[in-house]
Every structure is written in C-alpha cells, then in structure tokens.
Protein 1
Amino acid sequence: MLDNRLTHRSSLYINGRWCAPENGLVLTDVINAADGSVLGHVPSGGVSDIEAAVQAARAAFESWSNLPPSVRADYLMKIQDGVVGRAVALAEIIAQEVGMPLKMASAIQVGLPVTNLGGFVRAIDEVEWEYELGNSSICREAAGVVAAITPWNYPLHQLVGKVGGALAAGCTVVAKPADIAPLSAFILADAIEEAGLPAGVFNLVSGPGRVIGDALSGHADVDLISFTGSTAVGSRIAKTAANNITRVALELGGKSASILLDDADLEKAVKTSVNNCFLNSGQTCSAWTRLVVPRSRQEVVIELAITAAKKLTLGHPMDEGTRLGPLACASQMASVLKMIKAAEGSERLVYGGSAAVAEVPEGGFYVHPTIFADVDNKSPIAQDEVFGPVLVIIPYDSVDEAVAIANDSAYGLAGAVWGADQERAVAVAKRIRTGQVDVNGGRFNPAAPFGGYKKSGYGREFGALGIEEFTELKAIQQ
Ligand code: NAD
C-alpha cells in the first residue's frame, strides 16, 4: 500500500521549503495507467511560482557554484542515499504512473537513476575544471540557473540526468516535471531536502506545460534550459529562449534503426531488437523501432520477431507475470491506435494490430504489441515517432541501402548494428548519423554521452560530458 504522503502532494518546493502555489491551490490528478484510477495529485503552479523559484535559484547560485566540486559530490552522494532509501516506493509509483512492469521499473526507472547519480559523483573528478593553455588559464564555470523540463516516460531518470549534471557543475535548478508522471520528482525533492542542500539550489514547480514552460523558457534570469520531450515543444522552447539568447539543450524524439547485416546472429539480434523496441511499451525515445534486414532473410526475421513479441505478456504492471504494461495515458493510447489503424490500411500487418485483444484490466491504457513487415522506409509508420509498441521491419538489398534507410529519418538519436564481423559492424555503425549506436548488443554505458543529431536535438547528458554541458568556459590571460 502506497503512503498517501508520497502520492498526494499539495506543495511546491521553493527556496528550501514546501509551499502552496501563490495563486491558490489547484490540484492535478495523477492517473494510474493500469486501470485509469486516481493514483495521487500534485499542485498546479503558476507564473508567480516560477518567478519565486528562479529568484531563489539566482540568489543561491553564487555560493553553490563557488563550493569545491568535491563538496558538491558529497551532496550528490547524500541525494543518492535518499533515493536508494525510497527505491521501493519510487518503483511502485512509477510502475503505475507510467505503466512499466514493476520489476523492470525497479531496475530501470529507479536503479538507473541511482547508478547515474553515482556516475556524476565519479565524473566530477574527470572534468578538467581548470587548465593552462599558453599564457591563458582556461576555467570551466557553472552556467548559472538551469531550467530542467522533463517528460513522463522515464521521469526520474530524465530528471536525474539534468539535476545531477547541473548540481555537479555548480548550477542551481528549477525543475518542472510532466503532469502525467510527476510524483518521482517530488520524492527526489524529499531526498534533496533530506540531503541538506542550501535553500534555493534545487526548486520544484509542477504545473501546466505551456504556462510554466513558457515562463521558464522566456525568463531572462534563466541561463540554460535543459529540455527532454517532443520535437514540437523543443522547437517552441528554443524559439522563446532565443529572445534572451538563453542557452538550450534539447533531447527530443527518435525513430532509431537496428540493422541486421547478412552475417548477424539472427536469433540474438531479433530478440534483443524486439525487446528494445517494446521496452516501456515503446515509450522510449531511443527505441529501435525500425528493424532493417536483408531482404532474403526477412521471412525468417518475421517469425523470430513474432516469437519474441509473443513472450511479452500484456497486463497490469504490478502483476508478476506481466512483461508489457499499458501506455502512460489515454491520449497516448488514442494516438498510438490511430497510427496503427492508419498503417493497417496500407502495410503488411504480421502481428497484433488495433483489433488484437488481450486479457487486461478495465480502464487501463493497453495497446497490443504490433509488427508490420515489408515496410517502405518512406511510409508514415517508418518515419513518424509512434511512441507505442510498434515495430516495423524494413527489407534492404545492399549494406549501402541499409545505411541510407537508417539515415533517412528526421531523427538521429540511437541505433544498432549486428554482424559476425565486429570490425565491419563498427564501420557500419560509424556511418549512422545518430548520437548512440550499439554494436552486437554492446552494454549500456552510463558514463557515455547521450543525445541526438538532427531533430532528436542537441546537447549531451550523463557522465563528465553531461556535467560540462552545464558549464561556461573562461580564458584568463596573464
Ligand atoms: P512533451 O514535449 O509534450 O512534454 C515534455 C515536457 O515539456 C513536459 O514537462 C511538458 O509539461 C512540458 N511542456 C509542454 N509544453 C511546453 C512549453 N510550451 N514550454 C515548455 N515546456 C512545455 O513530451 P512528452 O509527451 O512528455 O514526452 C514524449 C516525447 O519526449 C517523445 O517525443 C519522446 O521521444 C521524447 N523523449 C525524448 C528523450 C530523449 O532523451 N531524447 C527522452 C524521453 C522522451
């Protein structure tokens, strides 16, 4: 049973204290993706709360940024302890807010942010804070007040990527989580409060995206906006920020390709690619949603993909046997079903589809995993980000064509290459225009920079480069 105090929040965290929104308390329900019931609520802040939070962050900046990096690392370790202490509740809450099965939510939605907080602690020592260049001293300094605006699909992970990097760099933060899955941000604020961070270093304001987001991105006292979310909102933020020449880092959508070369271990490659695509019910920006395969192997790949997809039992995220949960909200379910239905009119559906049924709880936002094959890369289902459990299999006739297909996308976030000849596979990976590529299932590296090319955005998160993102460079000549 979840503690109501964790799920029913009515205060914002500004200047080191929990306070009611200035213009009166309006609460926004947080919906349980599994059955549509109310899981909790958060307060809806407004422009005056943003004003208070930005001023608090501004006032706290000088002393925070002047602390030795090792002291900031100590605070990050304390925050990590606080998150670890709340891990069980965090996993239960995120599993139901977002819909990811509990065991996975525990490992990915909570375990990963814990690892990444530790990663920032280690990376603080890897940053070259000051070095000599001829008669210049080059100093890396904190960028200032950071606005961290995050989406709902990996709510704690995305927030930690920004807050961890920004605090490590010496920045102060105003965080704004997505309304669909905001509760973990409040629990992170609890951990930050417990860690004893000076007042104003971290502030949390929830509320409607447009109002709060516009107020943050248009604020002259915000030095850097770090945004993860849709390409449309990212573009709007960049335009608004341009008025004050405010720096922006954008982590946006994706439509990543997993390329199977002709000598790939098909069984391993297909199984891993299918699991990657359907992770978090496809609500993963870096998901390999296009499986690019040699034409002569397509039918084998289809069979292997169906076998792998059948293992992903759809159901309540809190049930032991569930491998695939619901989508996060009703509008996401409607949008995904609309895209599946549109593709059914023209594409070869080989698994699932809009009419496929499964035994799932009533009222939840479930979509059956779906696979289309023989897809032309120019078709909408191969070009548009679905953000749901949909895989498209695209055949190719030459390696050059496979690379061209992978790169023929507005996005450039991630991808994979599979082949028995490692050197050849790496050579193909180097031709893919994305920020990350995994070769033959290369292990996830939390110290590696994460971010995109093209409409997937700009800027990098995590590890030492994810700290440097939140810095400015100064040259002092003598
Ligand atoms: P979204 O763009 O609708 O919302 C993201 C955040 O922006 C939310 O907090 C929202 O309230 C806020 N927002 C809304 N309007 C705003 C405005 N005008 N100004 C400022 N902020 C505003 O995205 P979403 O639906 O929450 O998330 C899904 C999208 O995020 C997908 O496109 C997905 O690919 C992308 N995503 C990208 C990454 C990445 O690292 N590249 C990671 C996860 C998700």
Note: The first strand starts at residue 12 and ends at 14.
Protein 2
Amino acid sequence: MTDAAYPATRLRRTRAHAWSRAMHRETVLTSADLIWPLFVTSGSGVEEPVASLPGVSRWSVDGIARRAKEAVELGIPCIALFPHTPADKRSQGGDEAFNPDNLMCRAIKAVRDACGTDIGILTDVALDPYTSHGQDGLVDAQGYVLNDETVSVLVDQAVNQANAGADIIAPSDMMDGRVKAIRMALEMDGHPNVQIMAYAAKYASAFYGPFRDAVGSGGLLKGDKKSYQMDPANGDEALREIALDIAEGADSVMVKPGLAYLDVIWRAKERFGVPVFAYQVSGEYALIEAGAAAGVGDREGLLMEKLIAFKRAGCSGILTYHAPVAARLLNG
Ligand code: PBG
C-alpha cells in the first residue's frame, strides 16, 4: 500500500476527534485478555504484602478463593497460582510439588468450590517453589540442573495439579521434552481436556527478582538459571523453542518476560499463528509502580500503554499483576 502524497494524505485527519480515534483504533484490550497471577500462603485469613511488589499480597487459600470471585466479577477469565511453600516443606528434590494436599492443590479446590467453572485455573509447573536450593529442577552434585530426571518429576507435579482440578498446566521450567511428557501423562491419566500453556521462550532475566521474594525462593537460590533459561540475546532460538513446544502438544505458548521481548511475540505470532501469551513479570510490574511513585508519569497511563503494546504485538492475552487494576479501568 502506498499513501497518496500530502496534502491528499494527512494522517492527522483521523486523529482530530475522540470519536474518530476510537473508530480507527486497531487493537483493543479488554478484561478478557488478562490472566491474574496470585501467590498462595499457609494459614487462614492471612494476607502478607510482598514488599518488592507494592500492591501485591500473598493470600491464604480462603483469600485466594475471594480473589478468584473478584476476577469473575471483573471479567478476568483466568488466574495463575503460585505457592509460597514454608521452609520446612522444601527439600532437595521438591517432593512437596506432588503432595495432593499441598498449598497449590488446596487453592485449586477452594477456587473451584467458590467459582465452579466460571474461571480458568492455570498452574505453574517447575520445582523452584518447593526446592531447598531454589532451582526449577533436580540438581546433581555440581549443581547442574538435570534434564530428563527433572522431566519425570514435573510429570508427577502436573498430574497432581490436574487431579486437583487445574485447567491449564503451564510448565515454566525450560527442560527439553517436558511438554510431550506432560501431554502424554495427561492423556493417559484421564485429563484430555486439560490444556498446556508452555512457557516456550523463557529468558534468564533480571526481572524475576520480586517474584522470587513472593514465593520465597530468592534467598535460597545460589547462582543463576542460565543453563536452562534462554539468553536474552537470542531470537531465532526462541522460535525453535516455540516450534518444539507446539510439536510436542502445547495448546498455547508464552513469551516471558514481556516488554523487552515484543519482537519474539511478533515473530512467533507471524510464523506459527498459534495463541501467544506474554508474561509481564514481577520486575516489570515493580518498575511501573516505582516509576509512578517517582513521578515519571501517570500510573494508569503507564500501565495501560504497556498492556496494549502486547495486544498490538499479537498476543492473545497477558499475565499481569496489574490485571485487577487494568480490568477496573477497562470496565469503567
Ligand atoms: C519459576 C517461575 C519464575 C517466574 C514464573 N515462574 C521465576 C524464575 O524462573 O526464577 C517469574 C514470574 C515473575 O517474575 O513475575 N519457574
């Protein structure tokens, strides 16, 4: 397409009035585009604010059920659950991950009791909330995260979550071959309709710090996750990761973090045409809040501009800690 020359073409014409801007808007964001990550803690009636994530708290299971109801009222279709496992339940092998009565399973059941099938429940598969070393998998004597041994444990974790009632299993561990192994296990264990949203392109990012505080693994982690999470310099490799996860049976794929990887989202959508989700991670949320508090700009403006960017880049939806705030703004 070639535009006619000025003055036949004046792109400002369609921007002159609010009605016209509304009419020419290319992408829309609605509360149905949002997935709300929530942190689960022990006890009952407990709310623990997460210091590095202002405005975000861990909730005990009863509070999680209330947040899920709030999500339904706001038109948010799905929540993502992450447990803060007490130190005495963490271990080298992360066995608490497949305890059918762990925090995650209890939260899943409480949400189901409170909301029935009015809400989707997405659950994270990786061992870091359960290990005493904070890595996402099983480690050898040198601290290397073992691939195949980890995959077989992740399968147990995924089936445990599906048995409790999870709707979407989201492996965030970046082990090779785990999507296929989890898909096969779900099929064999009577969960053919449980979806897999693969954290397909997950980078070894500096933006995960507040999340690790929220699940209590930050202080435990020695070293980094670079032997399994991706190098931020790589885009082609992300497309290979995404292609593999689709071939292994992922229903949708995720790119994580979000804003620094819009090119990967765009390329994935163009290349594969599958549902692509972005995870606007904890550090991204915290930066917006810190920026707003420091007077960089209007909080609502800052957060909504970033969310619409994900839609423009091709996302089907966004995991964001701003989900309830954004939904309230969108619903007026
Ligand atoms: C763990 C996991 C992480 C996040 C989601 N799942 C952290 C990590 O890989 O260390 C990060 C989310 C966020 O920062 O908001 N497998």
Note: Residues 29-330 form a domain with the TIM Barrel fold (CATH 3.20.20.70).
Protein 3
Amino acid sequence: MKIRFSILLLFIGAIFGLMACEKEQKQYVIGVSQCSEDIWRDKLNDELIMGTYQHDNVKLRFASANDDDRLQARQIRRFLREGIDLLIVSPNQLHTISSAIDEAYDRGIPVILFDRKTDSRKYTAFIGADNFEAGWEMGNFIVNKLKGRGNIVEISGLEGSSPAIERHRGFMKAISRHPEIKLIARRHAGWLKQKGETEMDNILDSVTEKIDFVFAQNDRMGLGARQASLKHGFKETKFVGIDALPTPGGGLENVRDGRLAASYIYPTRGDLVMQLAMNILENRPFKRDNYLKGALVTRENADVLLMQGEEMAKQRARLSSLHSKVDSYLAQYNHQKMYLLLFSIIILLLIGIIVYTYRTALAKRRLEREAVNAKLQFFTNISHELRTPLTLIAEPVKHIMTDPNLTRKQQNMLQIVNRNVAILIRLVNEILDFRKIQNGKMELTLTSFNLGEHMHRWLELFAASAEKKHIKLQLYVHDQLPMLADLHKVEQISYNLLSNAIKHTPRGGEITLSATQQDQNVRITVADNGPGIPYDEQPHIFKRFYQTRTSNKGGTGIGLAIVKSFAEIQGGSVTLESTPGKGAAFTATLPLTVQDIKAKTSSTEHTMAQPYEMPANVITGKITNTANNEKPHLLVVDDNADICAYIAEILDPNYNITLAADGREALNKALRDVPDIILCDVMMPVMDGMEFCRRIKQDIITSHIPVVLLTARSLDEQRTEGYNCGADAYITKPFTAELLKSRLQSLIDNRRLMKIAFSADSPMPSIPKSAETIFVDKFRQIIQTKLSDPELNVDRISNEMALSKAQLYRKIKALTGTSPADILREARLKRAERYLQTTDKNIAEIAYEVGFSSPSYFTKCYREYFGHTPNKRQSI
Ligand code: FRU
C-alpha cells in the first residue's frame, strides 16, 4: 500500500513538474529608453508592444526622457540597476548619453540604438532610417519644385542629435549643386512644433528676401514654421517636413490637405526593432547596422498612403483587441488549468484514500476472519482433545459415587467433580456444535415430541439455581403442543436462553418461559426483569464471541450465536426485545413442523441431554455447624457454588467458614461478623471482587481484614489491578489446596504479629502509621483520658468511636488479641499500680480514682491480674 501511495505522490509531483517546466522558458526584460515623447514615438512604442505578442517570454519597460539628456542617462542607469536583458535606446544627442549606454554595453547587456546614434562604437546593433537620404530626398524635391532657383530656410532638429546632423548634410548635398538656390537661414528648433514656430518668427523678423521653401527636419516643426509664416502674411511660402506619419494630425494628412508640400516617410517599424532584439537575445544571426527604407510623400501619393496607413492602423487595433482577448482567454485557461489540476489531484487523492481504506478494510476483515477461524479451530481441537479425558473422568466418578461406603465428605467432593465434568462436557459439545454450524455441517435429527411436556422438565432443571437467587420461575405453555423438530436443538435454545436469564437476573427477579402457537409456528420466549441490554449492543448480541460491555460474568460468547443458528437451521429465527433497566425477552420462532430433506428422522423420543445440575444445597450462609472460637473466621465469596463447597471441604478443619455468593452479600456479612480473613472471587454478579475488596479496605471496621483474591484472571495487569484494590494476596485458578492453605495461614500469622505489636500499651514505632494504628491510638486515648470515670465502659467507647459494641469488640480483638473490656480493665489496674507506688492515697481512694465502683471488686481484679493483693509496701 505504501508503494501505491508513493506512485500517487510521484504522479502528482510529475504534474507539478510539468507545470513548472512550462514556466521554465527564459523570461526577458527589455528596457526601452526614449529621448522624447510625441506621436512618432507613441507609434513606435505601440509597435514594440505588438512585437512582443509573438514572444510570450518578453516584458518591456519604457522610460521617456522628455528631451532631457541627463534624465535619459539616469533612466538608463536605473534600468541597469533593476536588471534588464537588453537595452533599446534612442539617444537624445550624439555625445551626452554615450557614457550611460557604454556602461550597459560594458556590462554585457546588448544595446540596440534606434533612430538616433551616439559617437561611441559600443552598441550591438543600429536600426533606423537613413537620415542623410531623407535630407537628400527633400533637397532634391525642393530643387525640382524651384526649378533650380529660389530661397530656402532650414528649420533643423536638436543640434547635437544625429538625425539633425545627417539630414542637414544630405539636404545640403542635394541643393549645393544648384548655385541659384540659396539657403538664406538655418535655425535649430529641437524637433518641437512650438520651437519651429518661434524660430521661424525670428527668421521672418530678420530676413528680408522672399522665402520660397522652408525645409523643416520634421513635420511638426514644419507646421509650426508655417503658422509663423501665415501669421506674418506670407502665403506663398511652401513647407516640407519629414516623418509622414499616417496618424490623425500626422504628416500624411497635412500633405494631402496641402499644408505641407511634401514629407518623407521616416519609418518607425517597432516590429522590426523587436525582431532584432529577439534575434540578439536568442542568439540568432542579425545585422549590426539596419537601415529602413523611407519614401517621399507628395500630394500625389499622400491620399493612397494615408488610406494604407489608416487600414494598417485598423488592423493594428484589431490585432491589439484580439491580443487582449487572447490574453483574457489565456488567463481563464490558466485558471481552468489550475482548477483542473487541483481537481485531478483531489480526485486522485480521494481515489487513493478510498482504495487504501477499502484494502485496509478487506485486509482487516480477512485477518479477523483468519483470527476467528484460528480461534475456532483451536477451540475445536482442544474440545476434541478434552472429550476423551472428560469421559474417562465422568464415567469412573459416576461409578465410584455408587459405592455405599463413601463418607459424606467424599460424596460431596465427588458430586462437585461430577457436576463440573458435566459443565465441561456441555461446553465442549457447544464448541463442537458451533464449529459444525460454521462449516455448514450441522445436521438436523427430526423427532415428534410434545413441547409443553419438555418445557416443564427444562424449567425444573433451573429451579435450584433460581431458588438460590430467590428468582421466581414461571411457565406458560399449552400442555399439548406437538412439534416435529430437532428436539436436542430446541432444548439447547431453551437451555441457553434460560441459563443466560438466570445469570443476569438479580436476586428476587422473575423469569418467564413461555410458548405460544402462531399459525404454523411456535414462539418460545424467555423473558426476565433483569437489567436488560443497552440499545447500542442489541444489534450485536447474536454475533459470535460477542460479550456485552456490562457483563462481568465471563462465558464464551457463543451461547446466543448457537441459539440463532439452531433456530435458523430449522427454518426459524430469534429476536430480542429489551428496554434497558426493565429486562429482556428473547423469542425463538420455529416452525411446528420443521422441513428438511437432509434431516434424519427418528421415530424414537429424544433422550434428554444431561444438563448441568446446580448443587442442591444453597451455598450462602454459615456452613460450619459447630463454630469453634479458636479457629480463625474465614469468609468465602464466590458465585460458583461448587467452588464454595470445595473450599469449605478443604478448609473446614482449620477455619470457621461463612459463605457469600456475591460482593454485596459478602460486604454485609463482613461488616456484621468482621471475619479474620476473606477469600474472594473476582468475576461475580451484583458486586465484583475488586469493588468488594476496595470497600472492605475503605471501611475502618473491616480495613484490617486480609483479603485474598481467587480468580481465573491470571494476567500481570489483572494482578496489579487486584493489588491496587488493596488485596493482600492474589491466587489464580486452578489452584492447589496446599497453596491456598499456606497462603491463608501466612496471612493469619502476619496478623498475629500485628496483634503483638498492637497489644503493647502504645503501638510499636516499627508499625507504620495506618488506619489501624490510628484506630488503636484513638481507642487507647479515650481510655486514658476518661479512666477515672466509673461510668466509662465499652458501650460508651464504641459510641464515641461510632461503632456497634460487637464491631468494636471484633476490630479490637482482631488487632490486639484482647477484648476492649479487658484492655479497659488492664489500663485501670496499671494506673492503680502506679498510684500505689507513687502516691500516699489509700487503696479505696485509688480504686475509685481509676474507675472501680467498689474497692473490694478492685482488690479482686488486682489480685487476678498481678497475682497478689494491692499492698503498697509490697509493691515498692
Ligand atoms: C520624434 C522625432 C521625429 C524625427 C526624429 C528624429 O521624436 O523628432 O519627428 O524624425 O525624432 O530623431
């Protein structure tokens, strides 16, 4: 089973492992450092984000420096601190950001420059349009438009930024071939519309010549310059820019609408930037310098390009919405996957637990079955073994019992043997029957008989035991109740039910045996008014080997199982009705005519089984007829009459014996008689031996009495339990008469030693303080303090000690060997003796002082005790 669990755990582990592997793919963080914020860069950023859609393992982090070099350098360094795998950077100017970018490069972080460049070679790759080409194209456009003659103004981007430098160079190259074309002014406007307007304002303020064309290095600055120009009333001037963004307000729209004469597509292509980044990160081949294609936009193609751009924008929006949908589905899917996984694990665990529990239950049941079978087999073997020796005991005993020369004692002993052999034979037969039932080999022997007649006989057999417990037996049956059934089994059913009832019904109870005909069946009921059976135990009562919790009466636990089997084998059933505290009624319902093709039928009447006969004598009461005061008084407590009888037989010569059948009866007798020693069984009805022993040891009247527990319970812990109850000795059955005698004798001898100790005027210091020493001390103290009182007598002392006179007598006698009256007299005489020696008082005075009512009686007692008359001089 352990292996199965390990497999299950491995499986679960594997599922988790797989999940973990799924997530194992390397995650990249790319830092994107933008020099400024505008629609061109917004578009680029969007495209970068879309570029990540194809790569699950990439996370972008953006920073925008707002045209501030120092800020951009700081932002790059923050990226480095926080950890990035690749840096995409558009440096604001050529020189100023280089050191931060170099730092990243030196740390081994790949660097992609896009759109703008630095003056350093420390970059992994560049991607962007060819700015020289852009300037060159726009120069040529203007040259063409001016047809080789005219005045131009250039509004340039940020002075130190690479595109501004390169675009100017390209532009100059294009126009320089036409001497009639003059660049009459050039201003830097930092790529900003507002600045474009301002710089144009300045130019217009200072320039007097007519301006035919303004070349702005981007569309935004071009539009700003146009505004300034219009402000100044120059409507003829034409403007060109670069970027040609397809977005609203972008270059394409402005070219289409004529605000700009031309523009140049300065591509963003964030998708390609992303692709390049992934190639570098995933070690795929890439080109170091990647120039993107641009194109001239004029009024002629602006419309088409705009339409194209709008279409592209729509597609991008659609893609983006699709992507967010996919994202949310993916999140849902991941949740579902997790739930599914958890669900699968729970199901697997449940299956595991169920399988485990089922297999454990099966194994347990198998083991139980095996244990029961082994037990039964063992009992059966033993029973078979016992049968022969039992027969060999029973028969010779019966034979010897017929001998007329036997003494009464011998007859008694043989009767005990005979009765107990009968019990053993019945028990052995019961076990063998039970085995037969278990193996399905029990057969029926059908006979015709009159149930009424047999029931009378069966009940009679229990008369003696019922009488012993003062139980009233009643029989209700029709005199003529013919049956065809297995008589032995019907008898066994009745016998078992009756003997159970006798066992459990307390003294003075009532048992009724009845049989009533009901259609084709007969109902045999044994009802008692005993303690009944607890409701929770009722369903188990017919199970083999079942012992009720409350039962301390032993037994094999197969009696009721046999009743059930014997009823069922004859086509009947057995039921129980019981109200706890009010009694129990067992009913066997049997067919009046048992049908069984396999059954053997016997025409002859069944020979009655010889049931156990209870001993005729009632066991309780004093069995020693002539009480001998010299012999110690022994109280024997056992619910088994034979044990009582046997013990009485073997101990009678040495003890005065009183018998009791259960703990309660024995307790009453012990308090009344205060015996010298008690011999007590443990498992008994009403009050068991343990409880009895505990109570004996708790009561000051009886606490000194040695208790010997005599029991079949031989385990060490059972012994310990016995000693914990205060038992002085523990003898297990079977026992030998010799052992029993010597154990009792040694306890009696011990008590004698104690008597010697207690008989001294004050108990010896060697005696540990106990209830007994305290008791004797108290007794002596009462005497010593009230000695001079002539009224002090044993009656008053027993009153003060809250005991009856007889109880005080027995207790003091048991502890000291002397009667309380003798001790009192002795104390008075000893005090008188002291007075004689130490005072001048005369004899009469002393006699009264020590509590004698007359001097003459004092003198008589004194002489008896000391052997001389109370003479003062003599005693000095
Ligand atoms: C955007 C921008 C564009 C220009 C480019 C040059 O920030 O100003 O308008 O073409 O940068 O780097």
Note: Residues 602-626 have pLDDT under 50 and may be disordered.
Protein 4
Amino acid sequence: MNSKQNYTVEILFHERQIQKKIFEIASQVSKDYKDKDLVIVAVLNGSFIFCADLVRNLDVRCAIDFIQVSSYVDIQSQGKVQIISGFKEDLIGKDILIVEDIIDTGITLEFLIREISSKKPKSIKTCVFLDKKCAHKKEVPINYSCFEMGNDFFVGYGLDCNGFFRQLPYLGRIKEFDK
Ligand code: IMP
Ligand code: MG
C-alpha cells in the first residue's frame, strides 16, 4: 500500500454504536477501579480519540499518562517496537490501565507490559478499542475490549493507514482500488 493509491473506506461502526460501547466499558472500569490508584497509560498515536472518550465517561479518580510507540511502517508489522516518548508519571505502586487502539499480533502490548512492569506498579491491565483476536501471536491478557474484529485493516476513530484517516468519527475498513 502506498500514498499514491486510492482507497475507499467501508463504514463498520457509526459514532453512536461506538459511544454506547465505550459507555459500557467505562462503567465497568469505574466499578473495577473504585478505591484504587488508577493511572491510565494511553498509547499514542492510535488511542488518542478512544482514550479521550473513555476517560470522559469514567466515574473514578485517575491520572492520565501517555507513551508514544511505533511498530508499523505500512499495513504489516515490523515486529519491532520503539519508544518515541516515554512516561512522565511515577508508576510505582499504581494500578495501571494501558489504553490501546487495537491489538493485532500483541507484540506492542507485550512490550509495553514488560516496560511498565519494570516501573514496579501494583497492577497492570489492558483496555483496547479493537481486538483482532485471530491475529494474536503473543499471549497478552486483554481485560477490556470494545469490539472483536477479523483480520482486516481498520481506520478511523484514531486508527490510521500511513498517517491518514485518524480523524474519521466512525470506524471503517480499508478497501483498496487502483485507477
Ligand atoms: P501489534 O503490535 O501487532 O499488536 O500491533 C499494534 C499496533 O499496530 C496498533 O497499536 C496499531 O497502531 C497498529 N495496527 C494494527 N492493526 C491495525 C489496523 O487494522 N489499523 C490501524 N492500525 C493497526
Ligand atoms: Mg497503536
């Protein structure tokens, strides 16, 4: 896939469906983290919209931190995760919830769990917007997930294809076509 090609995007979930699901997940998170020392770690760039909606639906005290990682150059994983910008919060003794746009192979989340574990938190859980369950290559615990998906390439609602489509308010699936 390259930037000169044309794409169409098939809409899979509209804003209203997404918001309904996020409200459900946020209610569960609020319940589970009552009386805990919650630190949300949002994984940039992909989770910026999901995380913003999730935290605004939370009914529990939390701090929010960001980590920026990169693992993809195109639609295929490089299988290598790099930290571009790291944690600002002190994670020692905290209850960490990693918020990620999508789990595909699980390489990114496995890496992040390892990184965060080294900061000596009290607990680590994961929350993903999309779970490509059939694509997992690593065994990573997924504690909260909005939608289980097949092995397609998704865009919108924060997810990109080569940096584009993140701003779409809905979730879509890329359909490629050449002129
Ligand atoms: P993993 O390390 O293979 O689990 O990949 C995780 C990262 O790959 C995600 O955080 C996304 O940034 C990116 N990714 C994987 N699948 C898709 C997709 O369908 N659309 C957009 N980004 C994706
Ligand atoms: Mg990502």
Note: The longest strand covers residues 62-72.
